[in-house]
Amino acid sequence: GILDLLKEKLSVHCSRGPLLALSFTTPTLGTEGPPSYGILTGCMRGCLILLQKVDPCRTNTPTSGSKSDPSSSQKSQIMFALENILYVLISQAQQMMMDGNINPADIYHLRRELGMELKSILEGVHRHHRRGGSSPRLDRTLSSSSGMGNVLENSQLGFFKLGYNFVNNLLQT
Q1: Where would I find the beta strands (DSSP E) of 104-171?
Q2: With the C-alpha atoms ordered 69, 65, 67, 160, is the resulting torsion angle positive or negative?
Q3: What is the pTM of this model?
């Protein structure tokens, strides 16, 4: 599928070094160093919080979701950021896992940490779109893959389905 195509495309680019440092901590202000998985997952969490503020609850009012609605534009920008960060995370993780020079313990750490981080973030995206915003209902997790798959069939969330499949791949191997 799509993950196999991504693997093939990345095999050409593996001669370049990884872009992200293998760290999952969120740096403090003023910290210098290369970008890391922690920075990008932190950005995704921030985008998810912003998404819940901009689009707290879908309603059936005529103004909701219209092109002139400023929150619709903000939501589109946030979704764009989420998709692109997810793309960078997936491509960099795949590149690192395909690199024969990376220590197997580091690859195990990447699979475990990134898998759990992305699973949590994708659960948040799933909950937001399933409920129409953040509401105090009981949380449902990604463990019911059929329910997650049904919600993610929405064309707006298609790329997140790829992320979900990638996470399942990470956590199974």
Answers
A1: none
A2: positive
A3: 0.71
